[in-house]
Amino acid sequence: MTSANTPQPSTSDDATASLPLLELRDGLSDVVDEESALTETVEAFRAGTGPVAVDAERASGYRYSHRAYLVQLRREGSGSALVDPIPFGDLSALGDAIVDTEWIIHAANQDLACLAEVGMVPREVFDTELAGRLLGYPKVGLASLVSEVLGYRMRKEHSAADWSTRPLPAPWLVYAALDVEMLIELRNSIEQELRREGKWEWAEQEFAAILDAPPREPKPDPWRRTSGMHRVRNRRSLAVVRSLWEARDQIAESADISPGRILPDAAIVEAASAMPTDRDTLQKLTAFKGRGAHRHMRTWWEAVDHARRLPDSELPKQGPRYDGPPPARAWADRDPDAAARLSAARTAVAEIAEAHRLPTENLLAPDTIRRLAWSPPTDVNLEVVTTFLRDHHARPWQIGLTAEVLTDAMTSEAPAKPLD
């Protein structure tokens, strides 16, 4: 898609590049970090027309918090803006200026929370990543979609940068500005494709569901997600993992530093496996020889010693708490009928997804299928299954495609196939 506002292809020194490199059409604007500049930006975006492209940069891997360290916007008639939220803390005036229009966000679930923290909450979104999934694109990253749909190659070199750095280097700012440079054109092209394929109403329901989703509840026992946990064999060692993880988390939150930069997961697992009996033995472990580990060695030893002294009644259970069905691989032995239902349901849903060029997980959440197959409602029929799906947050388009085949699967007497 091209228009008077579409940037013209630029040359690239990379002889292997098959696509023109995307460049800023208006040049790089100054970062908005003073009240007067913010006021001008608010008025400029209030006066613009059409949807607003919005993006945010966090410092994942560097900071404990998930706050936004840069907010990028672009709108027809307003141009582009790079806003530093740190000097202001609250950007609700900017959010209010554009609240009545659609916000185009790539992977909205990743940015909505940090935008809300600074007072920017949309009433309508268009998620280009989710739309790409509905259209069956094999790669739905922003760079991949811009390449496939609009024919431009995007820079990727600063995707893992520490955006809490101040001042932000100019090459990083160019990279950030490019993230909203083509979002409006991308959104328009994707909408046309959604309409051609009869998936526009699906997309509308998905976008509405993003905004209607309740805040994410903290997962129980977050320490169980420590990398390398499979090496921890007993409950006492699990207690060491928990104790070290919690001690590290307190330090990380207080200093606003990513936990892994204070003590790597490998150190936690090594201590849990070795079960040292004194501080000297702990600090001799390979993973504890780094500067960060030594800096808090007293804390680490106190955490290990606390876990070593816990009574058996206070040790964590071997497996995580979970209110859903057991792992599918155990179903054939524990409940062959449930295994047969799950096999039939998975097969039917996968066939529908393939027919409509959809990832299976976007057609229906795998957890919903498992819960239905493990504990189906009494007197299964289409109405009951429809109600079950609705109660588990399936959208109308998903229910329309899957309710009937899932009803059949719940009454299937086919033999169970091995389940992963």
From TrEMBL:
Source species of the chain: Kribbella jiaozuonensis
Chain residue ranges for the region called Disordered: 311-337
A Pfam family assignment: DNA_pol_A_exoN
GO molecular function: 3'-5' exonuclease activity; nucleic acid binding; nucleotide binding
SMART domains per the UniProt record, alphabetical: 35EXOc, HRDC
GO biological process: nucleobase-containing compound metabolic process
Segments forming domain HRDC: 234-314
Domain of life: Bacteria
Name under which the protein is recorded: Ribonuclease D
